[in-house]
């Protein structure tokens, strides 16, 4: 796909280029993006409240409540009451949750690597590598 240098069109072109890749990765994974978001947040932060998880992945409190119960039932996360404020709950990954997160990340990577290997030349890969610093700047600016 040839990228038009017009700044107004660039966001649309990025969406058109990235959307199929995101779909490819989601399809390769065995759990929903919301569940994966919760596992990733807990892996990154060590422990988190339902409010913090909601802020990190941008879903409703009800969705967090239902999904954390499901993940807890699967043995992927644990909940603990705060020692100082017994009304507050903390969630954290179990060893099984960390393994599941690693497995899901690997499934996405494998699907992407296979698509790249089947479709990209060495020159194409170099172009992508040169764009990564700019994409990381965007990620840093939008990350909660």
Q: Which bin fits the share of residues in helices?
A: 55-70%
Q: Give the averaged pLDDT, no decimals.
A: 91
Sequence of strands across the biggest β-sheet:
1-2
Strand content: 5-15%
Low-confidence stretches: none
Name the structural class.
Answer: mainly alpha
Order of helices and strands: HHHHEEHH
From the alpha carbons, calculate the radius of gyration and give it in angstroms.
Answer: 18 Å
Q: Give the overall form.
A: elongated
Count of helix runs = 6
Distance between the termini: 31 Å
Q: How many DSSP E strands? A: 2
What's the multimeric state?
single chain
Short description:
The chain is mainly alpha-helical and 144 residues long. The protein is elongated, with a radius of gyration of 18 Å.
Could you explain the architecture of this structure?
The protein is mainly alpha-helical and 144 residues long. It has six helices and two strands. Strands 1-2 form a two-stranded antiparallel ribbon. A hairpin with a 7-residue loop joins β1 and β2 (89-93). α2 packs across α5 and α3 packs across α4. It starts with 9 loop residues before the first helix and ends with a helix.
């Amino acid at each position: 796909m040839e990228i038009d240098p017009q700044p107004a069109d660039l966001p649309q072109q990025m969406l058109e280029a990235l959307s199929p890749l995101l779909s490819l990765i989601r399809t390769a994974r065995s759990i929903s993006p919301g569940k994966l978001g919760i596992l990733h947040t807990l892996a990154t932060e060590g422990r988190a409240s339902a409010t913090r998880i909601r802020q990190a992945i941008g879903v409703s409190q009800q969705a967090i409540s239902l999904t954390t119960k499901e993940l807890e039932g699967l043995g992927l996360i644990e909940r603990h009451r705060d020692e100082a404020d017994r009304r507050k709950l903390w969630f954290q990954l179990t060893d099984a949750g960390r393994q599941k997160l690693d497995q899901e990340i690997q499934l996405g990577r494998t699907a992407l690597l296979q698509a790249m290997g089947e479709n990209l030349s060495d020159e194409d890969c170099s172009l992508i590598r040169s764009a990564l610093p700019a994409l990381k700047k965007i990620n840093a600016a939008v990350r909660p």
